[in-house]
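From the shared-data thread, chain only:
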Amino acid sequence: MSASHAPEPLAERNLRNPRRRQRSEGDSLKTAPRRKRSKLSENTFATRETTEEIEELDATPHGVGVNGYPRGSTRARAGRGTYESTPAALDATEMPMRGGRKTGALKHRPLKGDGATVLAQNDVYSVKLLPSTPKELRKEGLEYRGRVLNPGSGNASGHQQLALAVTREKAWVWDYAAYTAVSHARVFDMPFPVRQCDELPFGVLVQGAGSTDVGLVLISATSGKVVYYESIERAASLGLFQERKTGVEGTIAGFGSSETVLDVVSADLAGFVLSFSSGRIVQLTLRDAQGKPRIFTQPLRPGDANNGLFGSIKGWYSGAWKRDMVAVRTRALDARGQMQALSLTEQCELQTWDLDWSGRYEFGGTRDLRKVLAEELKSWEPAEAQVSVDNLVALDFVIADKRISGTRGNEVATLGAEQRLQIWLLLRKGTPDLLDYHLAQLSLAGSSVSLERVLSLESYHGRSGEQQPRLLLPKPGHTAYVVFGDAIVMAATSEPEVLEDPNWQLHEASYIQPQAFEDAAYLQYEKGFVVLDAAAEDTRSGHSSSVAFVKGAGLVRITATDPTGDVERTRIPVKSKIEQAVFYGAMQDNILDFARKGDNPYSVREVEEAMLMISDEILRSDTPFISTSPSSMDAHLDYRARALHALITHVRRDYPALSRVVMWQLLWDAEKVAAAQQMWKVFEEHKTTAQSAEKRTATVIDELVAQLDLHIGLAGAESTTSDDLVRSFFIRGLAHIDYLLSHIRGLLEALGGGAGGPTEKTVRYVAEADELWARAMETAFAFRAENAHLYGFDPELLKDGVLRDAAEYTELPEFWTSTKAMLKASADIPKLSRNFARVFYEKESGKAPLEKIAQIAIANPGLIQLCCQVYEERINWQASRPSAKEQDLARQMQQTYEQDRYDQFRALAGIGASEQGMLLAEKYRDMLTLTELVVGESQYYVDELRKNMSPEERDVGLALMQHVTERIGRYFDRFGDDWANAFFDQAFSGSRAGHMLEEAQRHWKQALTRYLRADPRRAKTRVCWINDVAAVEDYIHAGEALCDTAVETETRVWAKKVELGMSRLALLAAQEDASHRPPPGLEELIMKPGRELRVLEVQEKLYVHVRVECLGALDRDAETQLAMDTFGKRIGESGALSQVLTVNLDQLLSHQALSVEELIDVLTLMDSHTHEDPIDMPEANLHGTEFSLALQALDAAAPGMPQTRFETLLQLIWKRCYIYDDWSALTSGKAQKGSTDTDVQARLRHTAPWRTYFDLIDTAFLSRPDCRIRVLEPSECLDAACRPEDLAYRFPDRDLLEPILQDNQVQDEVLQGYVADRALDDWVKGCLTGAREAVNGKAERVAAWRQKEREVQRRAREREAASGVKRWGGGEANGHA
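Structure, as tokens:
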């Protein structure tokens, strides 16, 4: 055999003396000298407290070996932490030298640490990736089998802990305890051919007896070939210089072509025990009786041993050996090399053989363990789930070489053939899609089987059909390792000391023993990391250790303490689990997968408390995972920021949803770290700027940190230098970042209070303070907006990092960015900075100061925006508080904010930042401020253009003016009505309204039209009418708008009449313009002004009638009083209606336009009065037509009112008409006594109904086609205007409405009495009949008179004709032509 590489360890090259002689070829074959005994102290075998330290390997008495691991050495071995610098790839050998012969090893300074990468670590176990694995074995996808040989296994090869990796082409041997990656491992070519489709070959390192040599056994899994190298050193050396065989070869006897080797288990001096896929078990020995190397194999058969050739053939063909075997384990029986081999089948059958070094064996029998296991597991399950136990199979087992329960020391179990056998079984039950794994501890003594306990593996729920899991139980046996392809499960096999638990001492009767510790370390299976092989390590520190060969990564060591030593450590705290995932998983390229986990045993409250604690520790650097003495502060802060990001990512992915309060607190911590990163950069920039030739000048951060240290102290700030104090703040003080930022305001106030005004230094401080505040706060809000989704918040709910909806603040604590102190600072910092700049600008005029002033001016708009953000956040949070007092405070704060925002935006114009002020007003849609800024800017340019200036300057001014005009136009499109309302409201409210209207019609015609028509109140103004006629030429809208304005808003009679006339004129113009195709509804629009003019005509008649009686009044009050004295006598008894009449008469006399309801009230409540001198003013008398005029006004207004209202008013007019007269007196018996029909009709002629009927019939009002008025009987008018809903639209005030309703109800009672007692319905019918007769009589008289007139005219013509006189117009007159 030849070696592929020569063994040239790096450690050897470094330690070799350059003057030493060349080693001869035979030197490497000499045996090593006897090593000195290690020095032991009283602490050598003390149990370690944690897994941080390097484990020392066990040195157990010779002759003890279990589970196929070789026996321990008789020498005491030091751990990896106390290596004596033996080269990593060579044993310590004797060196031939001139002179006297001396032996011994070189002494070197012990190395610190093991160079391993910590993958996971907690109080119970640690997982480390060892650095020694050759890089060739860490290639992605490479498969191999692995074994280890360490000093605790009886290794006599110095302090080396050797690892073996066997691929299909090569075998690799190296010291896996090396501190760095082994670059020159011993590499051997495979001595037999292995195809890529074949199973991987097996390899075993063999400890030489009484020497430092280590042998190597290679076994083909498919051909049965075996090659044994007695010394890997000699094999490597000879293979380098010679082409001759260096090992012993052989073949497994009876190896079938369909068989494959499944496992190779060491049996110490008895050789090895091989298990096959066929179920056979074969013993392999490497030496003959004389101790010479030789390959010898024989099968181990159940039944009688050594039955000869015929027995072997009979056993082969009977198939007695064919079993579904899963594992083979061995243990030592005595110190003379006697061993016991045990095999386990899937159906839980256990077979034993006693072996010796000579190859003889004795079958020990078979025990069926399935029944006792199935009964126990079925007792765990409900009846409907017990069927899953029927699929129970055994996967692996290990032998416990000492009693585990209650054992705390390192005592070794008694050896001998009759010793009690304790084993642990790995079991699986369930269906392929839902598999459960269990560990069962059994005790066997003779033929008896006792089930000690069963542990259920809750932390692993893996894939079905994956690699067969393995069970390891390293010494001292307190922790079992279940090695799956994608995970390693650690389960405590020792039981806790119950008497040490204080809970048991307090509650002995009801005490429940805590569940055994269990946890799993998962691999990144999706990335190709799979456990290829695993082996137990024997340590003497009290810790349990195993190593795993991971594909693509190398060797991984898992070390566990005894978790039962402390009842509080029966499970890993959730805080520790999360810390592992954050600092070991997410913070580096870790092969472990912390996202995968089994059943979650932690409550939401535990997770929340752990999250808050971890986040706070990261914020304060109060965790062992974060250095408090970083060399680079940038890297330090970045590491903490990434840790917080990893924290929230891990918990949101792998734990239940946390409360909003907790998530916000976590986000706030991350915001503070992000803000601190920017603050540190600002500090570095300020340091560079303020650096002087002699020493560094203090910056504003130095001052603020010094104040913070005085007030609250900075933990760990041992040094008093400024740099150390600032670094202490960034390391430990970020929890107080809001305190530091809020005190910028106090610093600015202190700087402004000095005598003599601000100096250049103070201005520099102001500029630094502005930048510090802006960078920190902008970063905090930006971080919140960009990372809200990571914390489970909808980014759409935030604007510029501020929650927009007050409801989202419910139950949340105070935001650190908007505390009272932060709000006060955000409002005052921009003001103080502007004041500094203004005062200093007036005082100094140097170039450098002007640069600082420009810097302050440039930063001020950003400070104002931050002020707005803080205000909005504080207001929303305040509004979400449940108390009314807090909500009132929020409303007051909103008013303060709007005023402060207005002042701050306007103040920007004073420092030449009008553009920025407009941009801020645009952002916050503050249209009022934006209007004032734009108008002010426009007015400034107008004033400038009026001055004498050069043509070039005028061109620039005109261009700027045009820019403002275009900007205004863009605002109409961008902000719509909000901008138009604010802009035009201000434009039309001042003295320049006409000019602004012309400008708007010229530049923003469409926007102006939309503005005027958007609000009915504006659409009904004369400005809208002017715009429609002059600019838009929309006569229909002009007429309609002006008509609506006259009807609904105009209060003056003459103006209303003019507006209605102009409205009608505009509509007629529109009708003429659209004569060919008039738009629908135009005719109705044209009629509306006419109807309103008819109502005004009624009011004018009423005014003339009333005004005659008030001509002698001295003032308006006297006029009203005279009018009431004349027309309000009858209604004077009704107080509320009398007041209504008084108010309406006053409006009438004041030329105010009355609504139709008010006009009806006056006409129906006033007394009917006839003037004494009707000749001078015949139109002044109404002749009793008041109710007829009221009906005419109602008819004119009817199309524009709801039908119910029309009916109510119609009933009210007729009701008041019917109760105007005293019907009791008219219809009494006394009045009727002796009266003829003529007398009765004469009395009825003087009643209001008769006069009303007469006027309506006489004028043919009721016979018009469009008339909506009809005559109602008295009984139909009952209950008119007596309900609140009838008059509430006129009198919304109940104090005013109720008295009027009472008066109307009194009138209703009067009418009810007339209808019931006086048969008023019949009397008014008589009035109606009499009125018709009177109208007919009048018509007849008029007709007779006209007939008589025509007759007189006829006679006159006849007389003229007889006398010869012709009428004018003829040919002649009086005889003249």
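The first strand starts at residue 3 and ends at 5.
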